[in-house]
């Protein structure tokens, strides 16, 4: 596998890069960004935080607006930001070009329904292929991985962590889709990618996974109370109820006045990275 370097720039003493490769998982080229902090070098292996973005995003949204580099440089964290779907020739999109399905909206599942099953394999990409590429090309300690995400990416972070115990040492989310089987974005996406057998959907729903026995050691979630998607799509109360019943320590911080944007995310990004660093260091 050849990794093509699209750009590298020094930042906060480290290196912010953007890279592209031919993906076996998706059958397309995939682009991602990586920040390597200044602690790299002399054989040091550093913990890795994977950040999964939300609807309409590429790697670029968080890379340009997430304001994670200062904290990663202080804490010695590698920060990896993948794309949210396959893209390119032959990759099917939403039939109406809607923003909430298809391109920019892979939902971090492996699709089983045609015409999406061929390329839309974001779960395999995030869980298997991308970590292998990070391990082979960056000074990463793959025994110290964390995952976080926003909105659709918060759903991705939660579900991938819940379904793969032991893989990630810590999990956090900004405004996650808490229960896709109970909101319009999720019903459309899971139906479109997985078909109408709703029993299959539960394996891709954080709240349902917890109800069905999956566990996390702890969970940090920030949610703006002025987020326009809060009541109809995000529904943190469902996640809160499931965590309470399961005894999962959830820090759900309702943030007054904050919306769904990167102005919100960037405000609390350093808090999340510190929270991850504490759990990545002590093991
Ligand atoms: N109003 C948005 C809805 C999608 C949206 O808010 N996407 C969030 C993630 S769910 C986002 O991060 N957008 C890109 C950005 O703010 O840079 C649109 O129609 O494009």
What would your notes on this structure say?
Keywords: Hydrolase, Serine esterase. The protein is an alpha/beta fold and 283 residues long. It has one domain (4-281): Alpha/Beta hydrolase fold, catalytic domain (Rossmann fold, 3-Layer(aba) Sandwich). The chain contains ten helices and nine strands. A hairpin with a 2-residue loop joins strand 1 and strand 2 (14-22). Helix 2 runs parallel beside helix 10. The mean pLDDT is 97.
Quickly describe the structure.
This protein is an alpha/beta fold and 283 residues long. The chain has helices spanning 59-65, 69-75, 122-137, 152-163, 184-194, 198-201, 206-211, 230-234, 236-246, 262-281, and strands spanning 4-11, 14-22, 29-36, 46-52, 78-82, 140-150, 170-174, 219-224, 250-255.
Alpha-carbon distance between the termini? 32 Å
What would you call the shape?
A: globular
List ligands, each type once: glutathione
Note the main sheet.
9 strands, mixed
Number of strands: 9
Radius of gyration: 17 Å
Query: Architecture, according to CATH?
Result: 3-Layer(aba) Sandwich
Instruction: Look at the helices and sheets and give the structural class.
Output: alpha/beta
The stretches of 5 or more residues where confidence is low (pLDDT under 50) are none
Beta-strand residue fraction: 15-25%
- Helix % is 25-40%
Considering the protein shown, what is the CATH homologous superfamily? Alpha/Beta hydrolase fold, catalytic domain
Assembly category = single chain
Number of structurally distinct domains: 1
Q: Within the CATH hierarchy, at the fold level, what is the topology?
A: Rossmann fold
EC number: 3.1.2.12
Catalytic activity: S-formylglutathione + H2O = formate + glutathione + H(+)
Active site: 151 (charge relay system), 227 (charge relay system), 260 (charge relay system)
Keywords: Hydrolase, Serine esterase
